[in-house]
Amino acid sequence: MPNHVRIRDVAERAGVSVSLVSTYLNSPDKVGERSSAKIQRAIDDLQFVPNEAARQLRNGVSRMVAFVAFDIGDPFFTAVARGAQQRAAEAGLRLVLAETRGDQQTETEYVALFKEQRVRGVLLAPAHDPASYLTGLRRYGIEAVLIDHAPAPGWPAVVVGNRAGGRLAVEHLLDQGCTRIAVAGGTLDIPQVVDRRRGAADSVADRSDVLLMSYDSTTRDVSAGREIGHRLLASAVRPDGVFCVNDSVAAGVRETLVAAATDIPGDIAIIGYNDIATEAAGFETLSSIRVPDEHLGSTAVDLLLKSLDHPGFADQVEFTPELIIRASSRRTL
């Protein structure tokens, strides 16, 4: 049954003016403690739900920030969203999530939907070239920040040095004595995967004694890693080191290799990317490349807030990845 409680009903129950209730709903910090308590008690008693659409229509400003990402199920993006949500809440904004699974049509439709809703801003972690999205958003007065994607001229962005991260991972495997190295997971239509593979290639550019192999997968989850693990075991040239484009793929590879009685890291050393050891069980011994995921999200919101105050603001912040060595790759040479 619909709830038709109005602001006027809340005001009457609380014994205050309608304007004071409105102020409490929009700027609670401007209302005194006693009045706030009375208004909130009336809201709870009457089960009043503010009409956000009407509030936005009156004020002309939305409190909604959209985060469009291609894989919210990836613990990395989950952590980024958590950091963005916390910072948005501190600024009086609310974060909504949209997952595209890398599908360009879905990505286009979500951006169009948020444009129609006149959201306050968009945090965009696209799987495809976002140029057309960005132009359309700004035409409607909506600012956007790119997350973990190659910066676009004239737009703020927070990025990870993925090429440097790929280089760190493979240099570590080289230091452990690996000479047949597989780069596992993803495809070349994903910018982050491209950059990580480029970094891997940089590491062996002057090493004629090292073989670098690529194992693609259409997804980048544990099941993709398991399938890659079987391919590694069946390969005529079995690698002695594996750099996986994320930790989920690395976990799947390791699971398959361990089930086949492979010595990790003695026979095959494994390193992942994103360091989700603190986010999910089973990753505690996995070497990885760490990026400050939550800080990435909060920084993206900070850039968005600045761009709201200064349209056209286009600062770009790059985070440096860090090598984290654990048992899955550490050998005694």
From TrEMBL:
InterPro entries: HTH_LacI (IPR000843), LacI/GalR-like_sensor (IPR046335), Lambda_DNA-bd_dom_sf (IPR010982), Peripla_BP_I (IPR028082). Keywords: DNA-binding, Transcription, Transcription regulation. SUPFAM superfamilies: lambda repressor-like DNA-binding domains (SSF47413), Periplasmic binding protein-like I (SSF53822). Pfam families: LacI (PF00356), Peripla_BP_3 (PF13377). PANTHER family: HTH-TYPE TRANSCRIPTIONAL REGULATOR GALS (PTHR30146:SF109), LACI-RELATED TRANSCRIPTIONAL REPRESSOR (PTHR30146). It comes from Kribbella sandramycini. Transmembrane segments: none annotated. Residues 5-59 form the HTH lacI-type domain. GO terms for molecular function: DNA-binding transcription factor activity; transcription cis-regulatory region binding. This is LacI family DNA-binding transcriptional regulator. CDD domains: HTH_LacI.
